[in-house]
């Protein structure tokens, strides 16, 4: 059942890239919140395939990953009959509004984005223009629906701030036209609020506790994928980088031990406990005791998700039907907002 928009306390937009297998980081940093927010907000959850091609994607793999990420949303608890679930490229207004925002955003703003620096690395000159422009398209994704809340991991905070700057500059640049269009508040695009409250807002790599766990990391051993089987999860956790010390009994003892801190954080997030509670159980234990307990917990939480994903992707036609249906519903929301944006900017025609 689709509830009327007025029954909700705001509109949520969020997305993930089909640039590989979703990880435990995507799950704990974003997805857990997405599922929770469905009851209180009108939710739009997107598979952002246009963002994915900012880095090279094999076309056949991209199609499979798009269906797999959509399947992961459903397997984690997104209800596609309630929330809107679709892939970005099916709604052309994302790119169209992105172009208008390219002309609102300033180069200096984009120059400050740390994710571009991280992803482009030393190969900046060889990075795609799309990778540099990614945060502007992300602003368009959100503001195309005048979304008020954006549940994301901590790594996306800077991009959200840029979306807020773009909304504010657009409202200011076109204030006369916005007022003439009947928006007496002077606000056409709202300031979207980041919702960064997942149980683990930044899950780190299993190989390097100072680097975020990422689905496109060259090493599969750096992450736990939602589709990993029990043996793979146990192996990855057994081989996760740690130090030789036993676990401390208080959180302060983790401050200089990023890998230990990360594993305790994952345990806490998956078990719904605080890190303090985990350490009161495992303080003094060595990793040879803690790691198997963590592996069991990961398997217990992720195995049902992996199983559900496999069942869903076994029927690609059904996944495509769900995405097409979501795109149709997304378009119904986006079209009038984009049409009004064009009029405000001064474009002739509907
Ligand atoms: N390690 C993480 N910890 C907490 N949250 C995370 N997210 C991603 N990794 C972590 C959150 O997941 C959402 C979707 O992210 P994305 O697919 O758009 O791309 P990303 O943030 O760049 O994630 P990846 O896994 O690192 O993707 P690739 O490798 O393709 O670039 C976001 O809300 C993000 O915060």
Summarize this entry quickly:
This protein is mainly alpha-helical. Helices cover 53% and strands 6% of the residues. A three-stranded parallel sheet has the order 1-2-3. Strands 4-5 form a two-stranded parallel sheet.
Mind explaining what this structure looks like?
The protein is mainly alpha-helical and 350 residues long. It has helices spanning 24-37, 49-52, 59-76, 93-102, 107-111, 114-120, 129-143, 157-173, 175-180, 230-239, 258-271, 275-282, 287-313, 316-345, and strands spanning 11-16, 42-47, 84-87, 149-151, 193-195. It has a three-stranded parallel beta sheet with strand order 1-2-3. Strand 1, helix 1 and strand 2 (42-47) form a beta-alpha-beta unit. It is globular and about 70 Å long. Mean pLDDT is 94; it is low at 1-6. Adenosine-5'-tetraphosphate binds at residues 16-17, 19-20, 23, 25-26, 29-30, 152-153, 155-156, 201-203, 212-216.
> Which ligands appear in the coordinates?
adenosine-5'-tetraphosphate
Structural class: mainly alpha
> Reading side by side through the largest sheet, how are the strands ordered?
1-2-3
Average of pLDDT: 94
Percent of sequence in beta strands: 5-15%
Distance between the termini: 31 Å
CATH-scheme architecture of the largest domain: 3-Layer(aba) Sandwich
Q: Which regions contain 5 or more consecutive residues with pLDDT less than 50? A: 1-6
Order of helices and strands: EHEHHEHHHHEHHEHHHHH
CATH topology of the largest domain: Rossmann fold
Q: What is the alpha-carbon Rg in Å? A: 21 Å
What is the overall shape? globular
CATH class term of the largest domain: Alpha Beta
């Amino acid at each position: 059942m689709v509830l009327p928009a007025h029954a909700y306390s705001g509109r949520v937009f969020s997305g993930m890239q089909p640039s590989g297998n979703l990880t435990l980081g995507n799950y704990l940093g974003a997805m857990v919140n997405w599922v929770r927010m469905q009851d209180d907000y009108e939710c739009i959850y997107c598979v952002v395939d246009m963002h994915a091609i900012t880095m090279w994607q094999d076309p056949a793999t991209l199609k499979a990953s798009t269906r797999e990420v959509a399947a992961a949303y459903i397997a984690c608890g997104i209800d596609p009959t309630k929330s809107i679930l679709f892939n970005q490229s099916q709604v052309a207004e994302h790119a169209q509004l992105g172009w208008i925002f390219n002309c609102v955003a300033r180069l200096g703003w984009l120059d400050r984005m740390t994710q571009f620096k991280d992803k482009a690395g030393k190969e900046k000159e060889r990075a795609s223009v799309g990778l540099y422009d990614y945060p502007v398209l992300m602003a368009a994704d959100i503001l195309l629906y005048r979304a008020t809340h954006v549940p994301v991991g901590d790594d996306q905070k800077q991009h959200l701030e840029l979306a807020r700057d773009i909304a504010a500059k657009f409202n200011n640049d076109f204030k006369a036209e916005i007022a003439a269009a009947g928006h007496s508040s002077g606000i056409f695009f709202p300031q979207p609020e980041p919702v960064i409250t997942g149980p683990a807002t930044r899950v780190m790599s299993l190989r390097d506790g100072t680097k975020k766990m990422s689905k496109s990391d060259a090493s599969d051993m750096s992450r736990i994928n939602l589709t990993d089987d029990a043996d793979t999860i146990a192996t990855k956790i057994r081989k996760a980088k740690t130090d030789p010390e036993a676990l401390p009994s208080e959180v302060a003892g983790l401050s200089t031990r990023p890998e230990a801190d990360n594993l305790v954080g994952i345990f806490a997030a998956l078990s719904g406990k605080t890190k303090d509670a985990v350490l009161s159980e495992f303080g003094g234990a060595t990793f040879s005791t803690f790691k198997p307990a963590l592996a069991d917990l990961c398997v217990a939480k992720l195995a049902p998700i992996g199983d559900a994903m496999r069942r869903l992707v076994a029927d690609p036609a059904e996944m495509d039907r769900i995405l097409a249906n979501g795109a149709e519903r997304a378009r119904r929301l986006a079209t009038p907002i984009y049409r009004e944006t064009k009029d405000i900017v001064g474009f002739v025609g509907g």
